[in-house]
Amino acid sequence: xxxxxxxxxxxxxxxxxxxxxxxxxxxxxxxxxxxxxxxxxxxxxxxxxxxxxxxxxxxxxxxxxxxxxxxxxxxxxxxxxxxxxxxxxxxxxxxxxxxxxxxxxxxxxxxxxxxxxxxxxxxxxxxxxxxxxxxxxxxxxxxxxxxxxxxxxxxxxxxxxxxxxxxxxxxxxxxxxxxxxxxxxxxxxxxxxxxxxxxxxxxxxxxxxxxxxxxxxxxxxxxxxxxxxxxxxxxxxxxxxxxxxxxxxxxxxxxxxxxxxxxxxxxxxxxxxxxxxxxxxxxxxxxxxxxxxxxxxxxxxxxxxxxxxxxxxxxxxxxxxxxxx
Length: 325
Known about the structure:
This protein is α/β, with parallel strands linked by helices and about 325 residues long. The chain has helices at about 25-35, 65-80, 90-95, 100-105, 115-120, 140-150, 160-170, 175-185, 190-195, 200-210, 215-225, 235-260, 285-295, 300-310, 310-325, and strands at about 45-50, 50-55, 85-90, 110, 125-130, 265, 270-275. A hairpin with a 5-residue loop joins β6 (about 265) and β7 (about 270-275). The longest helix has 26 residues, at about 235-260. It is elongated, with a radius of gyration of 28 Å.
């Protein structure tokens, strides 16, 4: 199944019109054809991979296993269904003129499709189809933003790679977190949380990459690092264990409160007190008791339920609530 990011060569980053030529034109011939409206401003071009280099600002570091890249390369050797996207050397150097030496003799810089580029090289392909889109490199911030857009829909784009992309974008926005938030459709706190993840020790970052630590715990640890930069990875892992222990104790307490015996109410110190006299026993915890157990606000109640119930149970609860509404 083709993900959204893989369609950028023919979708968000440029549709290839019906008159798009696959044969190369001279620079002057192409400019004239665009001016006369004979072809779109960008078209499908088959580029020599020897003339193409990846963008240094690409936040993606993991391009899959050797086996997966080999499989992709063999697939590309049969057919290439989606074009890569590149900008010209001239457009790139207008943004970063000091990196000319790093580009070597390359004439194009990849904006979308570095994994396909790497896979093609692995199996010895000499060329790939590209759409050249200099209009996506009008400013440094635009170029880096488009790099992040290219990656963010990928299932294998991990937390640290995303944080690196946000950091690159923040740098090109001259530290303006509000501008980064606007471009990403987020709030400023989200931007700060992403940058903070990069302050964690490498060992903790690797756990995030490998899915061995949830991002919400990593954010808590990043706040601790901000308060005390001397904390080691071992100390941070101990802190995570304490956080999890506290959450487990809270869940157990909430379950105990929700499991009040029939006919009992809570006293001021949250202990169960049996009913006295001939008053009929209630059928279960009252609404007030449930509120006390779950939290005073809907947000607190939802948080408590998320801690005590798995996804399937939450879905069943939501369905039951909607059915009884």
